[in-house]
Amino acid sequence: AQTVTQSQPEMSVQEAETVTLSCTYDTSESDYYLFWYKQPPSRQMILVIRQEAYKQQNATENRFSVNFQKAAKSFSLKISDSQLGDAAMYFCAYRDSNTGTASKLTFGTGTRLQVTL
Amino acid sequence: EPEVTQTPSHQVTQMGQEVILRCVPISNHLYFYWYRQILGQKVEFLVSFYNNEISEKSEIFDDQFSVERPDGSNFTLKIRSTKLEDSAMYFCASSPDRERAPLHFGNGTRLTVT
After folding, report:
1. DSSP SS3 for A94
2. Mean pLDDT, to the nearest integer, of B17-27?
3. Nearest by CB: A97 against B89, B99, B102
4. A44 and B55 in contact by Cβ < 8 A?
5. CA of A65, closest CA in chain B: separation in Å?
6. Nearest one of B40, B100, B50, B38 to A35, comparing CA atoms
7. How confident is the model at residue B77 (pLDDT cuts 50, 70, 90)?
8. Which residues of chain B neighbour A102 with C-beta distances below 8 Å?
9. What is the pLDDT averaged over residues A84-99?
10. What is the mean pLDDT of chain B?
């Protein structure tokens, strides 16, 4: 079974600075998809960024980018120019390909990000 | 932008009672999911649903749980006889395809079992 590990329960960053959240995963598949979701205090789950395993290029969405290292099974999220609104719980998630069925997301345990002035 | 909507936002029930959590997925999506999140813990998969049947379910999804898509728009999760440990946030999600697209989540229903 696939597992997703987030080893940082909490992180803190100053406003305007850069922070990197770590994620590793375990899978025997070669094709899959990776996601970062943000959960603010409202508890809504908001997609931040996605990465296809077959693409070597790291995904970027405005201030958010990933460092995808397929051989190391690592998928970290970098937030540049951090803003107060970035404060939230961040979940790394994995989704299988070629399952033949509705493929579920498997989540990590989350990293709580605090943004300070 | 289309959204997944869930009702109610908060449900309080007594232990042993049946509850039905309701979801309206995004209209052109074909794959549907329920997840739960016990306070302060990770988001756990319960069940996936496609073509009017369950595709996969987790160990949590025992005989007390059932899902239904009664009318082509709603997607419901029923808990037959609630336990205290069922207290959690329940998220519905939908996706237009089975693997590539991200899941779109609703705002969740907070279930409190007393």
Report:
1. strand
2. 96
3. B99
4. no
5. 17
6. B100
7. very high
8. 31-33, 48-50, 55-56, 95, 98
9. 90
10. 93
Identify the contact set of chain A against chain B, taking CB-CB distances under 8 A.
Answer: 33, 35, 37, 42-47, 50, 52, 91, 95-99, 101-110
Q: What tokens were used for A112?
A: 């709580």
Residue of A66, A105, A109 to mutate for B, most B C-beta atoms under 10 A: A105
- Which residues of chain A neighbour B56 with C-beta distances below 8 Å? 101-102, 104
Token output for B65 = 């749980």
The residue whose two tokens read 């094709």 is A31
pLDDT at B109: 96
DSSP 8-state assignment for residue B85? G
Per-residue pLDDT averaged across A43-68, rounded? Answer: 94
pLDDT at A98 over 70: no
User: Exposed (0-12), middle (13-18) or buried (19+): which is B64, by Cβ within 10 Å?
Assistant: middle
pLDDT, residue B1, reads 72
Two structure tokens written together for A77: 């999220």
